[in-house]
Specification:
By secondary structure, the chain is of the alpha/beta class. It contains 18 helices and 5 strands. Helix 13 links the parallel strand 1 and strand 2.
């Protein structure tokens, strides 16, 4: 798809999202009144919100010109719907209503690519597995114990478990990759499958960050180099643990890192890169509909005259679409913290 068309579609869907979402829900209520009407006005509001999410992911996939991003989102949504005990045909009907709303609400030239992607998504639903496998292997007892302590609300025991493991000789890198990374992914799976609440998911993330901070004496004891890296999440992106893990891995290799955390304004990221004369800017994205912000940051950095700093990207959408990093203008991509170190050496 030509870049100007994909940009127009993305922009139009964002501008018309609320109106389109309301029309999608109106069509849902017409086609499946027995399912939706019992939820009343609060349910209708949530349906409009969720239809807006569908449109945001559709817009992001169209902007990236990659159907796998939308297909993967639908697989996630299917799992959510199943675990909320909705009838099996609800998601397909929602997509059909989305299709109809776009036909009514978008110019024909912009509508065709969106309809094609929805049709592609509809075809993928039957082959999408309902069961999401665990992210923790059977022999990974440390990760399982850590997760059990988190889910029971015992962050003190979780902390003690990790500190004792490190004192016993388990490398901090292994703790990050095999315990923190795997348990965070598992927490997401448990929330997705309606086995834990949002509050539990937030507690697990906060407790994990607390334990990570207790490992800093081991992280900052490494030899130092003269390299500098800025690590940030784009504006609106609230998932920061993965980004923090990457920054900590670079610290362990002796880099000076400037971790800006979640939801960082674009200009603040660029300003920090310039102020610290960073060798590397690493940008993390979890939500697919934030991909366009990565492109905007990279363009802003280059337009500021900075052609020296290399840009490394990572996060869930980049793991799905392995050429996406090229399309946003980055210099490289890494699926995890250890790979980020290797890729940084390559591009520098």
């Amino acid at each position: 798809m030509p870049t100007d068309i994909s940009t127009d579609i993305n922009s139009t869907l964002k501008q018309e999202k609320q109106k389109l979402a309301e029309r999608i829900v109106e069509l849902q209520y017409e086609r499946q009144p027995k399912i939706w009407k019992p939820y009343g006005d609060p349910g209708r509001e949530k349906s409009v919100r969720d239809s807006g999410y569908h449109l945001s992911y559709l817009a992001a996939a169209l902007d990236a010109d990659d159907p796998i991003l939308f297909i993967e989102y639908l697989a996630w949504a299917k799992s959510i719907f199943v675990n909320l005990h909705f009838p099996e045909n609800v998601l397909a009907t929602t997509l059909q209503c989305t299709r109809q709303a776009l036909i009514e609400g978008l110019p024909q030239g912009l509508c065709a690519p969106a309809l094609a992607m929805i049709d592609n998504g509809l075809q993928s639903l039957d082959a999408t597995p309902i069961i999401v496998p665990t992210f923790i292997e059977k022999d990974n007892l440390l990760a399982r114990q850590f997760l059990d302590f988190l889910l029971s609300g015992n962050r003190q025991a979780a902390s003690q478990l990790i500190l004792e493991a490190v004192k016993a000789g388990i490398p901090v890198r292994d703790i990050y990759l095999r315990v923190f990374q795997n348990t965070q992914r598992e927490v997401g799976r448990l929330w997705q499958t309606n086995q834990i609440s949002v509050a539990q998911e937030h507690f697990c993330s906060a407790a994990t960050q607390m334990v990570m901070s207790q490992l800093y004496p081991y992280i900052f004891s490494s030899r130092r180099t003269d390299r500098r890296m800025v690590m940030a999440c784009v504006g609106g992106e609230l998932h920061e643990i993965g980004a923090r893990m990457v920054a900590d891995f670079f610290e362990m290799e002796g880099w000076d890192t400037y971790f800006l955390g979640a939801n960082t304004p674009h200009q603040s990221i660029i300003q920090t890169v310039v102020e610290h004369n960073a060798d590397l800017l690493a940008i993390s994205v979890t939500m697919t509909f934030h991909i366009s912000k990565v492109r905007e940051i990279i363009q802003g950095l280059r337009q500021s005259g900075n052609l020296r700093t290399k840009v490394l990207v990572g996060g869930f959408p980049f793991n799905l679409s392995h050429d996406l990093w090229k399309r946003v203008g980055a210099d490289g991509f890494a699926p995890d913290a250890q790979s980020a170190l290797t890729e940084a050496e390559r591009i520098l």
